[in-house]
Amino acid sequence: MDLPDDATARRAREIAGAHAGRDGALLPILHDLQAEFGHIPEAARPEIADAVNISAAELHGVISFYTDFRTAPAGRRSLRLCRAEACQAMGGAALWREVLAGLGLDEFGTTPDGRLTVEPVYCLGLCACAPAAMLDGEPLGRVTADRLSAALAGAAPC
Amino acid sequence: MKDFVLPEADFGTPARAAAAATVTLSIDGQVVRVPEGTSVMRAAAEAGISVPKLCATDSLEAFGSCRLCLVEIEGRRGTPASCTTPVADGMVVRTETDRLAKLRRGVMELYISDHPLDCLTCAANGDCELQDMAGRVGLRKVRYAPGANHVDAETQGAANPLHVPVDASNPYFSYDPSKCILCSRCVRACEEVQGTFALTVAGRGFEGRISAAAPDFMTSDCVSCGACVQACPTATLQEKTVIEQGLPDRAVVTTCAYCGVGCSFRAEMQGETLVRMVPWKGGKANRGHSCVKGRFAWGYASHPDRILTPMVRARIDDPWCEVSWEEALAFTASRFRAIQAAHGKGAIGGITSSRCTNEETFLVQKLIRAVFGTNNVDTCARVCHAPTGYGLKTTFGTSAGTQDFDSVAAADVVVVIGASPTDGHPVFASRLKKRLRAGATLIVIDPRRTDMVKSPHIRAAHHLALRPGTNVAVLTAMAHVIVTEGLVDAGFVAERCEADAYADWADFVAEPRHAPEAVERLTGVPAAELRAAARAYATGVNGAIYYGLGVTEHSQGSTAVMAIANLAMATGNIGRPGVGVNPLRGQNNVQGSCDMGSFPHELPGYRHVGDAAARAAFETAWGVPLDAEPGLRLPNMLDAALDGSFRGLYLQGQDLLQSDPDTRHVAAALAAMDCVVVQDLFLNETASYAHVFLPGATFLEKDGTFTNAERRINRVRRVMAPRAGLADWQVTQRLANAMGADWAYEHPAQIMEEIAATTPAFAGVTYDLLEREGSVQWPCTDSAPGGTPVMHAGEFVRGKGRFVITDYIPTEERTGPRFPMLLTTGRILSQYNVGAQTRRTANVAWHDEDLLEIHPHDAEQRGIAEYDLVRLASRSGETTLRATLSERVAQGVVYTTFHHPGTQANVVTTDLSDWATNCPEYKVTAVQVSRANGPSDWQDEAQARARAGRRVLPAAE
């Protein structure tokens, strides 16, 4: 969702307001924002900080601590490839290079057409089916470049 | 705490209350007894055993991140961190074993693998805890090969993405991320000590980095208090003066000369050069904390604008002529004597300074009473807390706050009235915020939405945003709720207060016209909110009131102070820790200058000049008869100057023209005098109207004492010779002698002896005692030899507390069609009062001009946009300044500061004043605001006059 700053701020205030009075409201608010905007917009930050009465620095500390919180919009689809030990042992490193090369990317990030964001992840808990990946929130096991291409060719969930 | 060069003991974790149960344990074979809840680290430190540490310091709660302070405890698995492990009875601790040594070396190896090895050229060389710990654990080599790091700007010919360059945006300290060990001490200091929460650790793991969540420190929420710099164990956060000058080699404990908090500092010196000011942990007012002014804004002391040679001139239109001290003082003496010969003894007078020491103030009033032979002495407290003196003396019997600052830690409900502690009293604000974060309830009574109302982790339960000028109506309505809802502490009132006065008062406040509903339209405070606030204050266990100039600087200032005292007595909130009535006094020594007899009707110790016994004590000591009639107050002196009967004024350290209300009136009065003597550091605005200029000395250049808002007498210690040759007390002494006196004080300690001998509340005060105790709170007498932290404990100083009827009488200053808005004035954190000092420091980086805060709605109606030049006009005068749109002020109210002479906000303020004390009504002026094209005529004239008044003739060849 792409809104002007004041509309973003207004919407952020509404989202934060829905959690008013709740203990530990910050993470649920951030999840809701990311669900709605796909990332935590800069313009939403003062509203969140104000709603839970923390400083800009504290909020920045929390957002930057969790790699799952994005600070900029991602591609339309999201691919996470596991880079942890078990998957590396099963060829994860080669797979990583192959996937990036296939997409024309030098390092992880979003394809120039904004279609896909590729990111590393450290363990999806699927070590038994290594190498593992997660596409748009769906876990995939025993991944190969071909299987990934096939999955990416399929329709993106809306 | 970087303590290794000039060690101040660091116990690693904070002390626990001594009242807790005692725990006995063994550490390295020593038996140690400490209060329950103490950390193993602190218990060891108290026994003289230092456990290596990096992330722990005793101003902060334990964090347990550095893993250097590991110890072995019998019966426990592993090697627990001593900072986070509380002591237990019978515990057997070993702090040095082979296993621990190996672990610690391993930890240090990891730290050093990502740290620059430039110790010899590092600003913290010799003052670095990382360096000390490397030595302490015997680190001899680092086995890790160079790899990814935060140290090198370039790696393998390309920019290192992990490297972040130095942030030198703050004028006083720099942040060098390449030296950071991520111990989080800075983040925790900002949170726990200062309470601003401006810092965080951004990212995590190897990418973790200290961040102010802004492009740089200056654009962040940082208020530059210096707590992070003090907490940093390396050179990551470092004072720029240390980077430029190197490390100090001696430290002298002294007292800050800015606000009434009276923080103790270590002036860290190289010879006679000041390197840095570091808050002293032993200081009982500040407990090791500081603000941007005391910590960093001392550069004015060596500013080129300092005048170091006495100057005289026959007429104020002449240029200044530099002369010797003898000539200047002889000139002054002969002019003063000539005025007295022609117009009578009472034609001259003087003003003592709340910026100078007790001893200096005492001497100035002695000069006026004993040498001038008149009681025409007043002080700048006239324009700030004179109503406090009057109000608290009338109700409680003594002209001072009732508590020490430590008391706030025991308060359950805190009421802040007409004060913005985060601006005016920042170190107290930090202590208050700490208590609020721990759960105390806050009520704010203020027209503005100050930082206390809401800031990170602080939220006032009730904000009564009253219309300026209606304090008394609001406070009386609170009393109405307390009385009519049966919330009075009847036991306290019956035992401690005058019964008749209470009965009269209770009947008065219970009248329906004082109900919150009845005054709602007048005050703008919703009745339900006011009722809730009154109930919260009355029913909280310990209710404490802190108030500032927003209470006193009104036509009913004294009434409001008494209304506050009434509330405290009615609810029994007097006489124990955690409660009380606490004026937040503005200047470093405003309490002291009042104590020292600076008022025309009071001798030192608040004894009326008509009191023959009190007068006799001084007549005996001084060997001269004293006038039994009160002299002129400052406003009366100015009025008398205009009618020609008052012609000479000795002004020590007060910029009358800029700080007093109705500037035009003050200017005309000064211009009418024959001899105005200004003793100051700089040619201030008043000096444009002076005939004699006597160079002043800064607090760094003299010995003496300051008395802070909690009645604490703190030592001021000379760390360098007076730059103009004489300390201020020496100048006053030589002026007295030039006028025929025979004073021979050789040290301020002798003046304190005279004060103690003549003033009962100071009877026990000596420099020896201050040396021993660090500080003492008056009354310090035979019955309270160690001073008095909490006053009125068993009974009030006046015997029984006296309730006073507080009828609300609206100020004559009212809005109307021509002047539809209300102006209220105040201060800002980075600047101090008229700014003579702070404007001559890098603090201008935060606030380089006065701005007019105006509500966006009011601004829109007037076509005013952000930073537009606006004309601010009242019945008294007009000035121009730039506007800033802010919802901190309500509609119909505007706010500005008075730090800059170019603005001269006091051209606008009126000559209305408090009925009892003449304290000016700075806080309410009816004004109109409109867009402007350029400076007002007065501003142009004042600038021309200031330029002309600063001409100095070249010295004769």
From TrEMBL, chain A:
<dbReference type="InterPro" id="IPR036249">
    <property type="entry name" value="Thioredoxin-like_sf"/>
</dbReference>
<dbReference type="Pfam" id="PF01257">
    <property type="entry name" value="2Fe-2S_thioredx"/>
</dbReference>
<keyword id="KW-0411">Iron-sulfur</keyword>
<comment type="similarity">
    <text>Belongs to the complex I 24 kDa subunit family.</text>
</comment>
<keyword id="KW-0408">Iron</keyword>
<keyword id="KW-0001">2Fe-2S</keyword>
<protein>
    <submittedName>
        <fullName>Formate dehydrogenase subunit gamma</fullName>
    </submittedName>
</protein>
<dbReference type="InterPro" id="IPR028431">
    <property type="entry name" value="NADP_DH_HndA-like"/>
</dbReference>
<keyword id="KW-0479">Metal-binding</keyword>
<dbReference type="InterPro" id="IPR002023">
    <property type="entry name" value="NuoE-like"/>
</dbReference>
<dbReference type="InterPro" id="IPR041921">
    <property type="entry name" value="NuoE_N"/>
</dbReference>
From TrEMBL, chain B:
<dbReference type="InterPro" id="IPR006655">
    <property type="entry name" value="Mopterin_OxRdtase_prok_CS"/>
</dbReference>
<dbReference type="InterPro" id="IPR050123">
    <property type="entry name" value="Prok_molybdopt-oxidoreductase"/>
</dbReference>
<dbReference type="InterPro" id="IPR006656">
    <property type="entry name" value="Mopterin_OxRdtase"/>
</dbReference>
<dbReference type="InterPro" id="IPR006963">
    <property type="entry name" value="Mopterin_OxRdtase_4Fe-4S_dom"/>
</dbReference>
<dbReference type="InterPro" id="IPR027467">
    <property type="entry name" value="MopterinOxRdtase_cofactor_BS"/>
</dbReference>
<keyword id="KW-0001">2Fe-2S</keyword>
<feature type="domain" description="4Fe-4S His(Cys)3-ligated-type">
    <location>
        <begin position="99"/>
        <end position="138"/>
    </location>
</feature>
<keyword id="KW-0560">Oxidoreductase</keyword>
<comment type="similarity">
    <text>In the C-terminal section; belongs to the prokaryotic molybdopterin-containing oxidoreductase family.</text>
</comment>
<dbReference type="InterPro" id="IPR006478">
    <property type="entry name" value="Formate_DH_asu"/>
</dbReference>
<dbReference type="InterPro" id="IPR036010">
    <property type="entry name" value="2Fe-2S_ferredoxin-like_sf"/>
</dbReference>
<feature type="region of interest" description="Disordered">
    <location>
        <begin position="932"/>
        <end position="957"/>
    </location>
</feature>
<feature type="domain" description="2Fe-2S ferredoxin-type">
    <location>
        <begin position="21"/>
        <end position="99"/>
    </location>
</feature>
<dbReference type="Pfam" id="PF12838">
    <property type="entry name" value="Fer4_7"/>
</dbReference>
<feature type="domain" description="4Fe-4S ferredoxin-type">
    <location>
        <begin position="213"/>
        <end position="242"/>
    </location>
</feature>
<keyword id="KW-0479">Metal-binding</keyword>
<keyword id="KW-0411">Iron-sulfur</keyword>
<dbReference type="InterPro" id="IPR009010">
    <property type="entry name" value="Asp_de-COase-like_dom_sf"/>
</dbReference>
<dbReference type="InterPro" id="IPR001041">
    <property type="entry name" value="2Fe-2S_ferredoxin-type"/>
</dbReference>
<keyword id="KW-0408">Iron</keyword>
<keyword id="KW-0677">Repeat</keyword>
<dbReference type="Pfam" id="PF01568">
    <property type="entry name" value="Molydop_binding"/>
</dbReference>
